[in-house]
Amino acid sequence: MFYFNSFPKVITTDYNGNGILLTNIIKRVDIIPTLLKNPLLNYSYDLQEGDTPDIVANKYYGDSYRYWLPLFSNNIINPQWQWPMSSGVFDSYIQNKYADAAAAANVVSVLEYTQSTVYQYTKTIETIDGTTLNVTKTTIVIDQPTYDSTVPGITTSTFPGGATVSQTVTTNVVSIYDYELEQNESNRSIYLINSIYTSQIESQFASLMKL
Fold first, then answer.
1. Is 74 found in the same domain as 10?
2. Stretch 170-187: mean pLDDT, rounded?
3. How far is Cα of residue 56 from the mean position of the Cα atoms in its chain?
């Protein structure tokens, strides 16, 4: 199925007042969010270096023109920013985005600037229930004074009855480069619609777009 062929048409006028027929590319249809975690409909896939929507579609669905399915099942509207960049594209992105800031800081290397400049400070608290062995971990962004005054370490509390809870506190300095890399890598895990439902999804999508 050709993706944009399913989009509805709208009639408008050009600058000369002539009627023209255009494709309404802003219309959207979404998958019900709860279905995304249904293992019968979707499964998780970690994008590999060089994977693009059409390559993934060709790998799994056997048809590169189904490139829209990996985007659709992950609610990706702008692949340029919501799809992970390859290493080469990521390096170019860093260079272009931070070249002026590096120059203003009198740092010749943009890579050196992004790796040595702090983006944010974080504090992570990991709690372990000694009875159930349940582990919860929370990471928050903190300011520099809080970072400087926080003492990392492990504390264990014992409650009446013998139950214990251990809490581990760690702090971290996140550079600009590490932050950008983490943001890029966070897009690497996606959902793929089970191939046995491909035709059904395409049919329902085309039908809904006509409403």
1. yes
2. 97
3. 16
The predicted pLDDT at position 133 comes to 92
- The Cα–Cα gap between 110 and 102 comes to 6
CB 69, CB 196: distance < 8 Å:
no
Question: How does residue 153 score in pLDDT terms, banded at 50, 70 and 90?
Answer: very high
Residue 104 belongs to a domain: no
Alpha helices in 126-166 (DSSP H): 144-149
Residues 8 and 41 in one domain: yes
Question: Are residues 131 and 197 both part of a single domain?
Answer: no
Q: Find tokens 């027929």 and name the residue.
A: 21
Question: Which of 75 and 137 is assigned the larger pLDDT?
Answer: 137
* Angle subtended by helix axes 87-104 and 176-185, to nearest 10: 150
Confidence of residue 101 (pLDDT cuts 50, 70, 90): very high
Instruction: Enter the pTM of the model.
Output: 0.78
As a whole number of angstroms, the distance between CA 102 and CA 158 comes to 51
- State the chain's mean pLDDT as an integer: 93
Which stretches does DSSP call E strand in the chain? 9-13, 19-23, 42-46, 118-129, 135-142, 153-158, 164-175, 189-193
127 found inside a domain = yes
| 143: exposed, middle or buried (Cβ count in 10 Å: 0-12, 13-18, 19+) | exposed
